[in-house]
């Protein structure tokens, strides 16, 4: 009985050591070309098995690939200005997480993007009622909570732009 157990454990350890490390998901075919159209607008579209970014900045693609990260620092100035047409295709229907991993692999392979993740303590604003009696004041009135994520996202982006502060929900 004891001999059988040891053989199974030894066989399991050998099996684990013989496994190859997990390879990242990658697109089967990729194309990255500079876009020199001069247009300021770009579009980005992900479908199962395909990503197409037309006239996109590298910052936009990084933001998509590493979401929900709201901010990142570093990189050369051209990630905000140079524009690219990027396409990646793969057979089958990968999950959204697999597609994002493929996009991250593309950024690493084609742009030599290296990423370091960290959490930081940052200053934040808290919007509170200033009056002790709970009333809002002459010029303020209560409204229903905003149902549009786009509107609250715009507010957060504007607050970050003006004051360099992050919005916390």
Question: Could you explain the architecture of this structure?
Answer:
This protein is 33% helix and 15% strand. Mean pLDDT is 76; it is low at 1-16. The chain has 2 domains: 23-111, no CATH class; 123-169, no CATH class. The chain has a 4-stranded antiparallel sheet. The chain has 4 helices and 4 strands. With 169 residues, the protein is of the alpha+beta class. The radius of gyration is 24 Å and the shape is elongated. The protein has helices at residues 2-17, 58-65, 96-111, 149-163, and strands spanning 29-34, 43-47, 50-57, 83-89. α2 (58-65) packs antiparallel against α3 (96-111).
- Overall pLDDT level: 76
- The sequence of SSEs as H and E is HEEEHEHH
Number of domains: 2
Q: Give the beta-strand count.
A: 4
Task: State the low-pLDDT regions, or none.
Answer: 1-16
Total helices: the number is 4
What class do helices, strands and sheet pairing give? alpha+beta
End-to-end C-alpha gap: 58 Å
């Amino acid at each position: 009985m004891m001999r059988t157990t040891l053989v199974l454990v030894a066989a399991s350890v050998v099996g684990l050591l013989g496994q190859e490390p997990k390879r990242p998901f990658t697109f089967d075919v990729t194309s990255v070309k500079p876009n020199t159209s001069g247009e300021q607008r770009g579009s980005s579209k992900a479908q199962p098995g395909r990503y197409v970014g037309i006239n996109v900045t590298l910052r936009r693609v990084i933001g998509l690939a590493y979401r929900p990260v709201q901010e990142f620092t570093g990189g050369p100035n051209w990630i905000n200005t140079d524009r690219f047409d990027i396409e990646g295709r793969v057979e089958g229907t990968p999950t959204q997480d697999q597609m994002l991993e493929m996009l991250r692999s593309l950024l690493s392979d084609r742009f030599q993007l290296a990423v370091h993740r960290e959490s930081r303590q940052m200053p934040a604003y808290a919007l509170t009622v200033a009056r002790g009696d709970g009333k809002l004041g002459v010029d303020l009135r209560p409204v229903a909570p905003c149902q549009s994520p786009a509107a609250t996202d715009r507010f957060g982006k504007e607050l970050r732009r003006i004051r360099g502060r992050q919005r916390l929900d």
